[in-house]
Amino acid sequence: MGLFTKTKESAPCTVEVSHVFDSLHAHVRFNNGATVGPGDSVLVHGAPVMAAYGEVVSEDRMATIKRASAVERLWTKTTGDLEFMELCEFSFSEEATL
Question: Which residues pair with 65 in a beta bridge?
């Protein structure tokens, strides 16, 4: 892998969508053992997987993994901790007493 080059890789995957009382999630598992690293992006092909309330739907699909270049991977690792702060919610409130 070069410094600025990107590669694409096709991988079979299983998409699981759960819409039940205890869990609302969507997961993608690569059937060929592929892993996704920092800066990589994944595109799952096909129509959206929809699950009605109370259902768990699992479908086999194909996915394209776009691998990040070495520079993008380094940038993602370097700035990842800073962007984590955007996920934090802070609340400053004045406590009034009577």
Answer: 9, 42
Looking at the structure of the chain, the number of domains it has is 1
- CA neighbor of 57 nearest in space, from 13, 12, 19: 19
Asked whether residue 98 is domain-assigned, the answer is no
Q: How confident is the model at residue 78 (pLDDT cuts 50, 70, 90)?
A: confident
26 within a domain of the structure (yes/no):
yes
Q: Is 22 contained in some domain? A: yes
pLDDT tens readout for residues 4-18: 667 888 999 999 999
Token pair of 27 as six digits: 């997961």
Boundaries of domain holding 79: 8-87
Helix/strand/coil for 37? coil
Whether 45 is in a domain gets the answer yes
What is the rounded distance in angstroms from the CA atom of residue 7 to the CA atom of residue 1? 8
| CB-CB contact of 3 with 71 (8 Å) | yes
